[in-house]
Every structure is written in structure tokens, then in C-alpha cells.
Write a structure and sequence with these properties.
heterodimer; A: mainly alpha; ABC transporter involved in vitamin B12 uptake, BtuC; two-stranded antiparallel sheet; B: 269 residues; alpha/beta; six-stranded mixed β-sheet; 10 strands; globular
Chain lengths: 358, 269
């Protein structure tokens, strides 16, 4: 009833290529923005920020980043955890080396540093594809973690080998460090998510995005219409790594505050982000959000349900959680290999005719 | 066949747009192309025919840079062409379609054809990040040209359909659209009518003729349907076992003994 295209006529190409072509979608988008900006910061507490909102926002950035590389450009990467670590350590080194540098710039520069590293590890993609490229990026993952563990310079030779984020503020609001308020941290991450999602949408709708998708779908034909595969693949690696690096920097400095590299950025991280992208939907920015929400919210929801409602022992609940999440992933891949984004599209198709599917 | 038509319009100027000179292409011990030379005039429809395995597709691959010949030269617009990558050749104004459809399956027909405009879009990454202004402006200008191509090929109704879901004939048409959107000076078609029924072949022939006469695009095509080849092409090159065995107007080629032998075999006597 509400959700329909009827009566919405597009009379220009700019109207035809809108991100939210249907009015209802646009209202929903603004509704989410307003709730996210004006409502959530006032009710947020430590639990919601720590368990749900911050990880969701930060993983969304990482998922968008990996989606650009894997979903749009078709280059499989298992190095996400390693690249997040690059972002985290870059932000740590910047924060400790330049105490006066604004945290905003620190996060962005960390992204650029990761982009350079990602581009370097993207070089093999010019020669190898598919599984073989996945193995090459896996090497990046292990190499980077080993490097951050081994070379003392990266963790400023601290005795524990951990890196701890010093207090930094944006204006009068503390963003990092133990005294930072959840609301400020939330808004800081929200800002990044909003900007980066917007940039990702702009990049994927235009010339660059089409060149990535062309490489993904048929690299020979892409070359024949003038796409330089070197530029397309490496730009995907660079931009994807930028996103992942920003996510890693936020993950360390804002969310965790203190990080031990083998724990926080292990191969597990790479897989979690890859699951998000696959479950959410390859080649869809909405899918990145949906996948991140699924992977972050489901464990929390299950724990609340099993432990707090049913009163089950924590260890049984934790193991059951693995089983259920694993099962759901398999279920989703069978039912809808194109992910939650595709399910969402199907729902929208159905809604267009609801309640009279004549 | 269409020479009379053409001289009236004055599109055929007998100026070679491309000259192939003594091309030799070997894969290990196999000689795919053996010392072949021919030229393509500006504004003509040039057919390359020959039995299977004659080296026709290899010839197209040489022209657009997938294969680098061991010997010989390719001259484009009066200049000898250095060894180039396929994407560089695309920027010179040569577009092509493939024997087995090579569309971007995950993208809509519109996006596929928009991708064909790649060589004409110059805005850098920063203006694309901002989108509003320069990049969107460029996008909509190119969209306008793409819409003309869509109108021309009569595929308005499938604009937003993912091409993987389209029937074969329409996919072929979208692929032609992608090549046309690049506004090429030389259009290479590798078996544009393979696997089509008579009606679809007629449609495709009409599109090729219209592209040639309306936009003045030079067309080089490989095709197995002799009826089509003889009807629409201005000149024909015949290849067999990597060698050129005939070259000339459709009538000349039809009466060429070597060509008849290659297609029908030589009798024992």
C-alpha cells in the first residue's frame, strides 16, 4: 500500500538513477538517519554501545570495504583481519608519535596507510585469480600479524606486546581512551559509516564501479571496452583496504581501546567479515549493513534469549550459538545464495503489489 | 552487392582504415595465421569467412590485441601500430563483440551498455566520490548517448533487466549495443548471427547495415551464414588453414575456384 512506484514518474536521468527511487524508501532512509542521530545518542549506554552498536557500525565499514573488493570487483580476499591490523597499528603509531594530531585525521591517515599496504598485497591479483588469490591474501594475513607481533617498533616495545589507545578528543568530546562516553564514540563511528557508505555508493554507481563489475563478470570483455585491468583491480584493492583500515583503526582506538594483535585481528576476523559480505549479499552496500547486523546481533540475541530468558548455563549457550549460527549460514546460502540483500529485494518486489497481487 | 548504394551516399572512399600486412601467428608448432595481408576501407562492411579452424577469430584477436603476431604489421589510420594491450586498442576506437557472448552477467542491460562508454568518460576518482556536479553530469550525458543506442536496437523494455536473465538473441543485441556505445571507428563482430533463427538474423543484418550507413562505422565481421555475408558485405576475405585464398567483392569470391574447393572439397578425378 505504502510501498509502490505507481504515480512516481521519472523525467530525468538523475531521477532515474537515484539511490532510493521509491518515495517510501527515501522516507525510511531519512527516518533511520534521524533516529540514529537524534534519538540513539541520548539513550545509548555502555552495554548497547559495547555489545551492539559500535561493533555493528565498525564491522559495516569493514564489510563495505570487503564488498567493494570481493562483491564488486570479484577478487576474493582472506586478508581482511591483517589489513584491519594495519589500520589499528597505523592509528596507534600516529597517536603516540603525534599527540596533537586530531583523531579524525589519525583515522583517515590510517586508512590511507592501509590502502598502500593493500595495494601492495593486491599486486598478485594481476596474475592469479579465485582460490589462488585467496591463498595469496591469506599469506598477507599471516605475514602482517607475524610482523606486528615480532617487530617491537610497532607496539612501541611495550612489555606486554599490547597496544593501548591513549585518550584523544574531538572538540570537547573524548572519543578514545577509558573515559570516553558511549554517545560520543557512537556518533564518531556513525559519522564515518555515513560518509564511507555514501562514498561507496557514489563510486559503485559510476564509471569506476562499472569497471570493477566488468572485471568481476568478464575480464576479457572488460579489457576490450577499454578497462585497464591493472588500474581496476589495484584501485579496488586500494579503496577496499582504505575502508578496512579505517574499520581497523576504529576497532582498536574507539571500540576495544587495547589490542593484542593475534587475538583481535586473527584469521577469524577475516572470516567473520567475509561471512558478513556473503550472507549480506555480494555486490550490495545494503547487504554489507545487513550482513554486519546479522553477524553482530545474532550472537547477542541468542545469548540474551538462552541465558537470560531460559536460564541455561553460559557454556552450553555459547556452544549452541556456534551451532545455530553455522546452521543459519548454511541455510541462508542454500535458500538465498545472493544474501540478505536479495531477500530484501524480493520482499520489496512483493510489497509493490501488496495487498492485491493481481 | 551494395556498392551502387554506397557510392551514391559517398560513404565509401576506398581509404584504408586498417591494413593488415604479412601477419604470421604461431602457437608453438601450429601456424594459425600464415602471412596474411588485407585491408579494410573506411565505411565498408568487410567480411572474413572460411571453414572452421581457418584462423578467422585469431585474426580478430590480432586486430584487437589479444594475440601478438610473431611477424607482420598492423596499420591503423595510416600509422603502424605498436604492440598494444587490448584496452589501449579500445581507446583507439576499435570495439568488438564475441563469438560466445561475453556480457557482464551480473549487470543490467543498461549498465552493460553504459560500460561501453568507458573510453569516453574522463572524470577522476575525486569527482566520482563527490558525485554531485562533474561526475553525475558526465554520467547523464553519456546516459543520453546510451539511450540512443537502446532506442536504435529496440531494447527499451529490457533496460533494467540483468542480462543473465535475457534470451540469447537479446543478449547478442545488448552485446552489439555495448560495442556501439563506444562509438567505435572500427567495429569487429565475431559471428554476430551464430545460433539465431531467420528473423533474428534479419534483425541483426538490419542493425549492422544501419550502423554502417547511419553512423558511418566501418564493420569487419566473421560469419558462417553465406547468404548473410554475400548480402551485406562490400568485400570478403576468405581464409583456409591460416592462409588467404580469396579476397574481393562477394561475386568475385563466389566464383573463385580456390574458395569453392575449400568449401566443397576437390573431386578425386
Amino acid at each position: 500500500m505504502l510501498y509502490r512506484e505507481v504515480g512516481e514518474f521519472k523525467t530525468s536521468y538523475s531521477e532515474d538513477s537515484q539511490t532510493f527511487p521509491i518515495r517510501f524508501d527515501k522516507y525510511r532512509y531519512f527516518f533511520v538517519l534521524i533516529v540514529g542521530l537524534l534519538f540513539v545518542p541520548f539513550v545509548i549506554n555502555d552495554y548497547w554501545a559495547g555489545a551492539v552498536l559500535l561493533p555493528f557500525l565498525i564491522y559495516s565499514i569493514a564489510a563495505i570495504g570487503l564488498n567493494i573488493l570481493t562483491g564488486y570487483c570479484g577478487q576474493v580476499s582472506l586478508g581482511t583481519g591483517g589489513f584491519m591490523a594495519v589500520g589499528a597499528y597505523a592509528s596507534y603509531k600516529l597517536m603516540t608519535a603525534f599527540p596533537d594530531l586530531n583523531i579524525l585525521f589519525i583515522i583517515i591517515i590510517s586508512g590511507f596507510v592501509t590502502a598502500i599496504v593493500g595495494t601492495l598485497f593486491g599486486l598478485p591479483s594481476l596474475r592469479i585469480k579465485g582460490f589462488y588469490l585467496a591463498v595469496a591474501t591469506l599469506a598477507a594475513q599471516f605475514f602482517l600479524i607475524w610482523l606486528f607481533n615480532k617487530v617491537g617498533w610497532f607496539y612501541n616495545y611495550s612489555a606486554s606486546g599490547m597496544i593501548t589507545s591513549p585518550s584523544r578528543s574531538l572538540g570537547t568530546f573524548l572519543i578514545t581512551g577509558p573515559d570516553a562516553t558511549p554517545a560520543a564514540q557512537y556518533l564518531f563511528c556513525f559519522l564515518f559509516v555515513f560518509l564511507l557508505a555514501w562514498v561507496a555508493r557514489n563510486l559503485t554507481r559510476g564509471k569506476i564501479g562499472r569497471s570493477w563489475m566488468a572485471i568481476r563478470d568478464m575480464d576479457i570483455a572488460a579489457e576490450i571496452i577499454g578497462v585497464n585491468p591493472l588500474v581496476a583491480k589495484l584501485s579496488a584493492f586500494a579503496i577496499s583496504s582504505f575502508y578496512v583500515g579505517v574499520a581497523g583503526a576504529l576497532f582498536f582506538s574507539v571500540y576495544l581501546g587495547a589490542v593484542e594483535v593475534t587475538e583481535a585481528f586473527s584469521i577469524q576476523k577475516s572470516f567473520i567479515v567475509l561471512f558478513m559480505v556473503i550472507i549480506g549479499g555480494l555486490g550490495s552496500i545494503f547487504g554489507s549493513f545487513a550482513g554486519a547486523a546479522f553477524m553482530v546481533l545474532l550472537p547477542v540475541a541468542l545469548k540474551n534469549l538462552l541465558v537470560l530468558q531460559f536460564g541455561w548455563p553460559v557454556d552450553i549457550a555459547a556452544h549452541l550459538e556456534f551451532i545455530i549460527i553455522g546452521g543459519l549460514i548454511v541455510f541462508f546460502l542454500i535458500v538465498e545464495p545472493h544474501g540478505l540483500a536479495q531477500l530484501w529485494n524480493l520482499l520489496k518486489q512483493k510489497l509493490r503489489l501488496w495487498p492485491f497481487p493481481y | 552487392m551494395r556498392d551502387a548504394n554506397k557510392t551514391i551516399k559517398g560513404t565509401m572512399r576506398n581509404v584504408p582504415i586498417m591494413e593488415i600486412k604479412n601477419i604470421v601467428l604461431r602457437f608453438g608448432g601450429v601456424v594459425a595465421i600464415q602471412d596474411i595481408s588485407f585491408d579494410i576501407f573506411e565505411g565498408e562492411i568487410r567480411a572474413i569467412i572460411g571453414p572452421n579452424g581457418a584462423g578467422k577469430s585469431s585474426m580478430l584477436n590480432v586486430i584487437n590485441g589479444f594475440y601478438h603476431p610473431q611477424d607482420g604489421e598492423v596499420w591503423f589510420r595510416g600509422k603502424k601500430r605498436a604492440a598494444m594491450k587490448p584496452y589501449q586498442i579500445a581507446h583507439q576506437g576499435i570495439a568488438r563483440t564475441f563469438q560466445n557472448i561475453a556480457l557482464f552477467k551480473g549487470m543490467t542491460a543498461l549498465d552493460n551498455i553504459m560500460t561501453g562508454r568507458f573510453t569516453h568518460m574522463r572524470k577522476g576518482i575525486w569527482s566520482q566520490i563527490i558525485w554531485r556536479g562533474a561526475a553525475s553530469q558526465e554520467e547523464y550525458e553519456n546516459r543520453e548517448i546510451v539511450e540512443k543506442v537502446i532506442d536504435f536496437l529496440e531494447i527499451q523494455h529490457i533496460r533494467k533487466t540483468p542480462v543473465g536473465a535475457l534470451p540469447y538473441g537479446l543478449q547478442k543485441r545488448v552485446e552489439l549495443g555495448r560495442a556501439l556505445a563506444a562509438e567505435p571507428q572500427l567495429l569487429l563482430l565475431d559471428e554476430p548471427m551464430a545460433g539465431m533463427n531467420v528473423e533474428e538474423k534479419e534483425d541483426m543484418s538490419r542493425y549492422i547495415l544501419d550502423v554502417n550507413s547511419e553512423f558511418g562505422t566501418t564493420v569487419a565481421l566473421i560469419e558462417h551464414d553465406m547468404g548473410v555475408v554475400m548480402d551485406i558485405s562490400d568485400r570478403v576475405v576468405v581464409m583456409d588453414y591460416g592462409k588467404k585464398i580469396g579476397d574481393g567483392s562477394p561475386d568475385e569470391v563466389r566464383n573463385n575456384q580456390a574458395v569453392i574447393d575449400a568449401y566443397l572439397g576437390i573431386s578425386e578425378k
